[in-house]
């Protein structure tokens, strides 16, 4: 399959410069860039000077989260959840996201189905089930429930494991199933029923054991953490990315830099949960917990950006709120320049997931994932915040969505 884009204004997200010219794609890769390119057997699309950017990367999604009531997921038939996931993934692709990192819930079945063309959607980097201590953010049992519903065939987002030996087994099991990374719950969270947001979770020995297992398999650990205390413990244990981090402090910034780690803020989900969460299944008790982190996210983003922390784009939306995915661009613009927000959703995210040079760029040799836009996102980030401005979505060198 060959594709030739003519008369494009191609954004180099590293330099921030535009280059006028053509792009030739072959067998799913960018193979040539320049002026006056020819390809006799290629499909030719003349974009007439439109801006072309790399396909977007969302590094914190839950494609199986068809409801905001995460405790209810385990009672749903996996086949039913998979059908919802296919719809969610297809809509993400139409919004311009050609790669996503699932932060718990998705498995090799969904990743294989997407790779084989059985479902439409972004390239899916999965971790399987997130690791949680008893009573942690991945333990969805209510206070009166003793039975765990975290069997591998269940559709939940987490699995409970306590103790160094048990977390090693759990990490090895997710890696056995092909996990691209390991997710660990290192603090309390909004959607979990029995923990406090300001709690720390897992001992340092357990966290280090999980990091060791991931490292042994040449993989890495992403840690859910809100407070500075939880963030700092996770960084000291060696995690590669911290998810959320709304209540981090200056010490956190120092540790991010020292350990060469990434921060993945998810601002849009708190706004969405507060406005719509209950309509899409968020329990009342969880809705009241949103306030603890709602106002702090922008401040944490500003502190991290000012300190030079490597920032990556993430959204963490649930249920019917997935449709707000692109709104994260507008929220981050309150703190960052448009180019920095775009880098978070392209080259920075590619670095985090170990795919630098392959995604998040339009350099020769990269996957031919790109967007043709009606407008200049460097002048107005709303061009990416509103999917109506995406004229074409190209994935693996094929035009798969057009407006």
Automatic annotation (TrEMBL):
Q: May I ask which residue range the UniProt record assigns to the signal sequence? A: none
> Which SUPFAM superfamilies does the entry mention?
Composite domain of metallo-dependent hydrolases, Metallo-dependent hydrolases
Provide the coiled-coil residue spans: none
Q: Which GO terms describe its molecular function?
A: hydrolase activity, acting on carbon-nitrogen (but not peptide) bonds
What residues does the Amidohydrolase-related domain cover? 51-399
The record's section on Pfam families has: Amidohydro_1
The record's annotation in PANTHER family points to: ALPHA-D-RIBOSE 1-METHYLPHOSPHONATE 5-TRIPHOSPHATE DIPHOSPHATASE
Q: Can you name this protein?
A: Imidazolonepropionase
Species: Streptosporangium subroseum
